[in-house]
Amino acid sequence: MIDVKPITLEGHQVVAISVFLPKTTLLVVTTDKGYIMCGALDVALLNEKLSDRHIIAGRALGVRTIEQLLDAPLESVTKTAEAMGITAGMTGRDAILKMV
Predict the structure, then answer these.
(1) 24-30 and 12-21 strand pairing
(2) CA distances to 21, 53, 57, 73, 99 from 2, in Å
(3) Number of folded domains in the chain?
């Protein structure tokens, strides 16, 4: 099952996506510019093999809900996200607010 719903963060509408798979759930919060995701996101792949796409993204580990994804510190971010002031250690919520 896939759950897609709009959520509001400080007056900005973003989209929360949960993909329920056997033994795991993929979590994403996205804006028009970028996204944060659970540990399934391969930041190294985005930075190395897909660098020409300039993807703005961050990854949080150990999260099981959208709320945890927003509250967790990001473990890693893409180089393009860093150029926008999004850093590892920043909460997912703060990163998303920089992407709106």
Answers:
(1) antiparallel
(2) 9, 26, 21, 25, 23
(3) 1
User: How far is the C-alpha of 62 from the C-alpha of 60, rounded, in Å?
Assistant: 7
Cα atoms in the Cβ-side hemisphere of radius 13 Å centred on 40: 15
Euclidean distance between CA atoms 16 and 12, whole angstroms: 13
Mean pLDDT of 70-99: 98
In this structure, what CATH number is given to the domain that contains residue 43?
Answer: 3.30.1980.10
The pLDDT tens digits of the residues spanning 38-67 come to 999 999 999 999 999 999 999 999 999 999
Task: Please give the model's pTM, rounded to 2 decimal places.
Answer: 0.95
Domain region containing 76: 2-99
Token pair listed for 20:
């329920």
